[in-house]
Design the sequence.
């Protein structure tokens, strides 16, 4: 089958990270502290959000029409000449944005150029109340806001996305955090905000040259050690900015770049799906008799396995902006933003697994069970072995070009024009070499937090003789997305009276997406296994797992090279792109809005706010293929597959959405304000949900009476529609001190959910078969309600160095009612995917003199990961409650130089999942702890 020699290797033994700087020694050596005086505990008068951002070195992004603030802020207090830097400045700026925004908003502002509180964007977002994240290979990759994953992502108030066949939004792990000045999370809409979200909008803000008074330069270098991968990886960032007065007006140029390399390793112990024995089935009845459990409910897993997956990421981001202000009334901003992301995950998986076939207990072996009859420990015989070496790779490049013009022909009138073009490309590769054999015995014990199991074979797992057959799977797919957007907005401010201003605007967007996928190509391999490597699993799960020992597997260095893998296996071609693997989506939107902003200061309780309506016309066109694969029956009754036939399937849909909104704010006192909001919004289907491609394969004579399944999208899906009520009570008792309580309620119609639809198909030879087609439908309604509590404060009243202590804390409660999707198993009423009912953040802060430190703990309770996943027997999977501790400490050596030490996942959190019932575990997942050293200079 394969050729090559056996080489002894051990995964993840690269040279470790060596710390070169002792922050404690630097602090003890002493240096002139930066100018930083603790502000008084008394709360200041409100500051406009735009002003607050400029005070912290950032500004509301050009073209961001959603950054509406109070147009006539109260005069700043006498204490505004106090110099505030670092964490205090970022928290003060974020608090001012929240306080003065026209909607319910939470923000994160960078402490310094290129320094968000967390180096990963999603990890930073999880510190905001109401935000929960999902992780992939140890890093935050996606978020839900208030229990819903239908989140809109924006860059400076404009579209931003990663080309994909499955999602319409940005993959948060793609963007280097060093390019951002801040992040705003809008939790309820107003008429001037772009639609297409149910839960909220995340706006990433970059810096502009006019944010700074003059020349600015900043650079950082980082080295991060990943303890499970046992590797170190570098990162660096650079920002250069300047502005000049010229004969044609003021001109500013800013260029920023970030380069990151990261490593990871993820170790997983999996238990395969559980099946309840049926006493009316002869085979199951015999198994019950063997176990001595005739007449008792008994559920057995069909195997177990492990996965050791190291990998690496590379991010390269560039942001260049040019601003020109030819006069006091006219300003142009052009920006080029490019994000280049590469991900490789590779390694070994080893399984003893019978799939849907019954598993055979060893007669006389001891077995234990949970009170409900679920298997807990025991031994099985003659279990098939799967031994895989694989790589998955993704390369995504997103480029954003934008141009904004802002003109104030009169002091009261502002006209803004904005244009944007986005080009995004993604290429994916999956390559798997699998070996197969048979285990003599499989002994499992799932009673502990970390499941244990032993596998034996006649020749031993490290012997090539154990593996009699093999296979090769490879898959190529790519996506390309573009977006052409133009918008025109005008705002007229009134000099007096209740009406403060009127805003109106129009927007046109032309979004297109194309995906090509070869599907997985299967190549059978026969003969003796070759090109094997000895794999030492001694440090798997940091040595805490009780497993079967070491193995032989197909060479990982070979698999890392796709061409070399095929050459070794004698495969000369790559998979072919078939018509059935191609689908396209085109979406055009035509939008207009009108909003009125008002302020009634003369009332006993002053009130301000806005009311408006947004009208959107959406036209969608999708293309795909219907693929039918018939059988040819020979005169002797033998059957073989005929060449597939393809029929183009083009569909279109259009709809109009009217989205009113109301935002009210009552100033109960100078420091206490109450918000109320009512609105409607929509979330359009993802591209994969619209894909009309369907493949039907004729069953053979022996399978005609079995259950047949397939899947497709639904091009006629309507957008999900949500009617929302929001309220927030906010008390700002200090410059960086506040307490807020918020409640929300969302009533969602046209909720998109998976359904199973029967479909009868008659093939060319006259044979008719019935298929269960899993697809999407606007199944029913859903409701989401909840509450948030947030608190932050520096304890300035404490004496001396203790005045540098501070704290942030928030708690979120979210409850949902949604229709159950197409699923099978013990759980039939399922919550929304990715939704934890409870989660909280506790952050301890210290900033005084040279030192700035932070310790952050995030916790969330159980949540539904997926309703059904590959290899789970179509059962829903839940993740258990878990928390993670991160920390950082910074020494501000001089006003221009700082040194930082970051620690991530210090608790070595193991994330565990289960099949609906905790006595049926699925995965136990361990990821790296990370230690990073950062040196940053700013001038």
Sequence:
């Amino acid at each position: 089958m394969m050729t090559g020699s056996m080489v002894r290797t051990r995964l993840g033994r690269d040279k470790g990270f060596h710390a070169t700087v002792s922050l404690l020694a630097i602090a003890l050596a002493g240096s002139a502290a930066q100018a930083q005086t603790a502000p008084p505990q008394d709360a200041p008068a409100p500051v406009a959000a735009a002003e607050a951002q400029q005070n912290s070195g950032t500004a509301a992004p050009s073209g961001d029409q959603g950054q509406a603030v109070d147009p006539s802020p109260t005069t700043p207090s006498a204490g505004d000449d106090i110099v505030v830097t670092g964490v205090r400045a970022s928290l003060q700026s974020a608090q001012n944005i929240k306080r003065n925004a026209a909607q319910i908003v939470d923000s994160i502002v960078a402490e310094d150029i290129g320094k968000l509180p967390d180096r990963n964007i999603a990890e930073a977002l999880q510190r905001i109340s109401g935000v929960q994240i999902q992780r992939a290979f140890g890093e935050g990759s996606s978020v839900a806001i208030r229990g819903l994953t239908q989140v809109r992502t924006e860059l400076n108030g404009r579209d931003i996305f990663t080309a994909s066949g499955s999602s319409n939004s940005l993959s948060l792990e793609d963007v280097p955090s060093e390019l951002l000045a801040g992040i705003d999370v809008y939790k309820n809409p107003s008429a001037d905000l772009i639609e297409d979200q149910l839960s909220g909008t995340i706006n990433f803000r970059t810096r502009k040259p006019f944010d700074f008074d003059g020349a600015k330069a900043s650079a950082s270098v980082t080295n991060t050690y990943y303890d499970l991968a046992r590797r170190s990886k570098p990162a660096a960032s650079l920002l250069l900015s300047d502005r000049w007065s010229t004969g044609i007006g003021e001109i500013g140029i800013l260029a920023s770049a970030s380069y990151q390399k990261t490593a990871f390793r993820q170790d997983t112990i999996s238990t395969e799906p559980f099946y309840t024995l049926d006493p009316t089935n002869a085979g199951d009845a015999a198994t019950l008799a063997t176990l001595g459990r005739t007449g008792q409910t008994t559920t057995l897993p069909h195997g177990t396995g492990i996965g050791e997956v190291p990998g690496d990421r590379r991010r390269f981001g560039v942001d260049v902006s040019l601003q020109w202000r030819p006069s006091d009334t006219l300003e142009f901003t052009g920006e080029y933003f490019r994000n280049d992301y590469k991900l490789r995950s590779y390694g070994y998986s080893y399984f003893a697994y019978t799939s849907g076939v019954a598993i055979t207990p060893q007669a006389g072996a001891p077995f234990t069970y949970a009170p409900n009859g679920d298997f807990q420990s025991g031994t099985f015989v003659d279990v098939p072995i799967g031994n895989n070496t694989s790589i998955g790779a993704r390369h995504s490049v997103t480029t954003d070009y934008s141009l904004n013009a802002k003109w104030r022909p009169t002091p009261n009138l502002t006209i803004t024009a904005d244009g944007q073009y986005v080009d995004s490309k993604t290429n994916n590769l999956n390559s798997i070499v699998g070996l197969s054999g048979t285990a003599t015995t499989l002994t499992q014990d799932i009673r502990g937090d970390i499941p244990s199991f032993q596998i034996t074979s006649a020749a031993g797992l490290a012997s090539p003789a154990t593996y009699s057959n093999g296979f090769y799977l490879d898959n190529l797919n790519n996506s390309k997305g573009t977006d052409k957007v133009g918008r025109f907005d005008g705002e007229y401010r009134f000099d007096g009276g209740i009406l403060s201003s009127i805003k109106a605007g129009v927007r046109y967007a032309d979004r297109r997406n194309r995906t090509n996928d070869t599907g997985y190509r299967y190549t059978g391999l026969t003969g003796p296994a070759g090109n094997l490597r000895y794999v030492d699993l001694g440090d798997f799960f940091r040595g805490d797992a009780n497993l079967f020992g070491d193995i032989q597997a197909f060479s990982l260095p070979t698999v890392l090279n796709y061409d070399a893998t095929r050459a070794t296996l004698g495969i000369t071609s790559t998979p072919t792109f078939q018509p059935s693997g191609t689908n396209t989506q085109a979406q055009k939107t035509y939008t207009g809005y009108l909003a009125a902003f008002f302020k009634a200061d003369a009332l006993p309780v002053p009130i301000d706010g806005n009311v408006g309506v947004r009208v959107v016309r959406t036209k969608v066109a999708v293309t795909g293929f219907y693929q039918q694969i018939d059988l040819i029956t020979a005169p002797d009754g033998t059957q073989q597959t005929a060449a597939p036939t393809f029929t183009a399937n083009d569909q279109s849909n259009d709809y109009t959405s009217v989205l009113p909104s109301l935002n009210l704010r009552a100033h109960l006192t100078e420091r206490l304000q109450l918000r109320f909001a009512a609105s409607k919004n929509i979330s359009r289907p993802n591209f994969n949900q619209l894909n009309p491609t369907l493949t039907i394969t004729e069953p053979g004579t022996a399978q005609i009476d079995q259950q047949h399944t397939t899947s497709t999208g639904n091009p006629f899906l309507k957008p999900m529609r949500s009617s929302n009520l929001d309220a927030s009570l906010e008390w700002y008792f200090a410059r960086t001190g506040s307490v807020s309580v918020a409640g929300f309620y969302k009533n969602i119609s046209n909720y998109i959910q998976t359904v199973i639809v029967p479909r009868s198909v008659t093939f060319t030879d006259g044979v008719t078969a019935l298929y269960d087609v899993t697809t999407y439908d606007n199944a029913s309604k859903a409701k989401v309600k909840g509450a948030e509590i947030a608190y932050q404060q520096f304890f300035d009243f404490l004496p001396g160095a203790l005045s540098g202590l501070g704290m942030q804390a928030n708690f979120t409660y979210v409850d949902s009612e949604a229709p159950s999707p197409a699923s099978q198993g013990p759980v039939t009423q399922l919550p929304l995917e990715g939704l934890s009912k409870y989660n909280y953040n506790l952050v301890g802060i210290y900033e005084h003199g040279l030192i700035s430190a932070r310790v952050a703990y995030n916790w969330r309770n159980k949540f539904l990961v997926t309703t059904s996943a590959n290899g789970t027997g179509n059962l829903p999977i839940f993740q258990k409650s878990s928390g993670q501790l991160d920390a950082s400490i910074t020494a501000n050596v001089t006003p221009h130089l700082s040194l930082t030490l970051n620690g991530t996942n210090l608790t070595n959190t193991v994330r565990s999942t289960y099949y609906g019932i905790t006595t049926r575990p699925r995965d136990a997942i361990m990821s790296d702890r990370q230690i990073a050293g950062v040196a940053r200079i700013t001038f």
